[in-house]
Structure formats: C-alpha cells, structure tokens
Amino acid sequence: MSQRAAAAAAAPFTITDRSSADAILDPHNYMRYNNPSSQPYSGSVIGNTSDVTAATTAQFGAFWGELAKRFADNEKVIFGLMNEPHDMPSALNLANLQSAIDGIRNAGAKNLIIAPGNSWSGGHYWTKGGSEANSNWIQKLVDPLKNTAVDIHEYLDEDFSGGHTACTQDPAKNLAGVTAWLKENKLKAFITEFGGSNTTGCVTMLNDLMDYMSNNEEYIGWTAWAAGPFWGSASPCCTDQKQFGSFEPGSKAADGGPSLYDTIWLPVLSKKVPAKLQWSGPASVNGGELTTR
Q1: Residue 217: active-site member
Q2: Using CA atoms, how far apart are residues 154 and 208, in angstroms rounded to an integer?
Q3: Per-residue pLDDT tens for 196-245?
Q4: What is the mean pLDDT of residues 78-83?
Q5: Per-residue pLDDT tens digits for 122-147
Q6: What is the rounded CA–CA span in Å between residue 107 and residue 206?
Q7: Distances, alpha carbon 80 to alpha carbons 44, 50, 183, 203, 233, in Å
Q8: Cα–Cα distances in angstroms (integers) from residue 85 to residues 45, 133, 210, 263, in the given order
C-alpha cells in the first residue's frame, strides 16, 4: 500500500476521534482486483490460481496486515474484510478471509472484524446453495481473539439488489435461516447494507427489519445504505434509478424536493436508533457499556 493510498484511507477516520462513533473500513471490491471498469463483475477473483493476473490469497492477507498496522491504535475502526464476494468457490472465499484475519491479528490489531459470505453476503441466501452455502463455511473462520462478526446485506426488493422502489421481501422470513445458523454457531452479525424507498410498503418492512434485529441478540449493529456528500441528488438505493437523494443530512432530490434523508432516515430509521449506545471503549462482538448522550 502506498503512502498516498494510506493517507487517503486514514483521512475519514479522524471523524471517529471527534464523534466517538465507530466506522467500518472495507475494500469495496467484491473479492476482485485489477479491473474496476465494470464492477461488480470485472476484475480477477482474488486467489484464483488459474488466473495469472489475479492477486493471491497471501497478498490479500498482506494487504490487510499492512492496513491493520495503520489503524491498530484506533479502537473505533472496524475492519470489514470485503464488500460482497460473489460468483466464486466458497472455499476460496473462506481461504481469503482467513488470510486477512491472520494478517490483521499478526499485525497486533485487536479491532473488531466483520467477515462477509459468498453470494453477495445476502442473509436471505445464507443457508441456500447446497455445498456452496455460506452456512457450510463461514463458521470455520478462526480468530484467536474471537472478535469477528458476520457481515450481512439484506435488501427488501424483488431480487434483493436494492435497485427497485417496491419492497416485496419479508425480512423476518428471509433472515430466519441465517439467524438460526448464527444462534447454532454462537456467532454475532452486523447488517451493513439495507435500505428502502419512501413507499408505504417499504416503511412497513423497514420497521419490521429494525424490530427483527432488535429482538434477536445475534445482531449487534447495522448501517443503512447510504449517506455521504458523494451521492449528491443521486440515490444509492431503492428508487428505480430516480434521483431522490440519499441519507445525507441536507441532501435534496434532483427536483429540489425532499430526499431519502427527509422521507426515510428522519421519520423511520432514526426512530429506531436505541436510546443507549456504546460511546466509549473498543468495538467488540461482546459490546460495551451502553449510555445515553
């Protein structure tokens, strides 16, 4: 990793120091490398030994070891090992994730790690796919500090992509399998991507999803997709490509009207943020002291 790339990665995390919030750092590369032109499909699958242009599993571990050294002293940084691996052998996904965990821990970093599954890390598909099902693999990860949680994505539209306005997928029904698997294997999970539009059906299902996580202790956190000034009036989720803005405070739709911040974040999701949160101490699968602020 170059010094320039490291500085760019580090810049946003000064916010965690000022706000006491946790932040997730992840390579948003779909377990691919070397050609971002048509992501999420372009690029060589990391660890694919039949592709001479692919980064190796060992290189992926070295990458995370180098990154971990730079954030080991910031207990508010959570390491998300990879965004949405897909269309690859689950055994290779496991090997890559294990190499990353080894690199992080060998670097002396004790930070919370969140590890994704194959098949876009979809919670609804976690126990499906026969021998390739994530439920046959991810519990095999070994973290000597036992501070690794599972990274799950769960959108509510017809194909679970987050690309459509209508919400049609019942979250409680679709997460039942992965929740039972988490319980059986004594694991915790973070739902790091979900969202919905401002339709009545989506508002109902978003409330149902938030309540489901609250009622199942296997879920230790969530992040909705998405906010940030990067989006402008574009919508990162759930609008059939209409420009209704994002969850960024102050954002507006392309026509100057209310954004998803106004119609979803404020009236729906923000209401589900617990009154007590962990404001101090390291992020951990075991949590910490919960206080108001």
Answers
A1: no
A2: 13
A3: 999 999 999 999 999 999 999 999 999 999 999 999 999 999 999 999 99
A4: 98
A5: 999 999 999 999 999 999 999 999 99
A6: 39
A7: 20, 27, 21, 28, 27
A8: 9, 13, 25, 31
Instruction: Please list, in sequence order, all residues whose beta carbon lies within 8 angstroms of the beta carbon of residue 164, skipping any fewer than 6 positions away.
Output: 157, 158, 238, 240
Tokens 């070891």 appear where?
65
Task: Give catalytic status of residue 193 as yes or no.
Answer: yes
User: Are 121 and 153 in contact, with CB atoms under 8 Å apart?
Assistant: yes
Q: Rounded CA gap, 109 and 107, in Å?
A: 6
3-class SS at 241? Answer: coil
Tokens of residue 73, six digits: 């002293």
What CATH architecture does domain 3-272 belong to?
Alpha-Beta Barrel (3.20)
CA distance 52 to 209: 43
Which amino acid does the sequence have at 197? S
Q: Which residue in the list 75, 154, 193, 218 is annotated as catalytic?
A: 193
| Long-range contacts of residues 238-244, Cβ cutoff 8 Å, at least 24 apart | 238/155, 238/156, 238/157, 238/162, 238/163, 238/164, 238/165, 238/167, 238/195, 238/196, 238/197, 238/202, 239/165, 239/197, 240/163, 240/164, 240/165, 241/163, 242/165, 244/197, 244/198
Query: Which uninterrupted H or E stretch holds 32?
Result: strand 32-33
Domain ranges of the chain: 3-272
CA distances to 66, 80, 126, 137, 274 from 31, in Å: 18, 12, 17, 16, 33
CA–CA separation, 19 and 14 (whole Å): 9
Q: Which of 84, 154, 218, 248 is catalytic?
A: 84
Note if the bond before 149 is cis, omega within 30 degrees.
Answer: no
Phi, psi dihedrals of residue 219, rounded to the nearest 5°: -100, 120
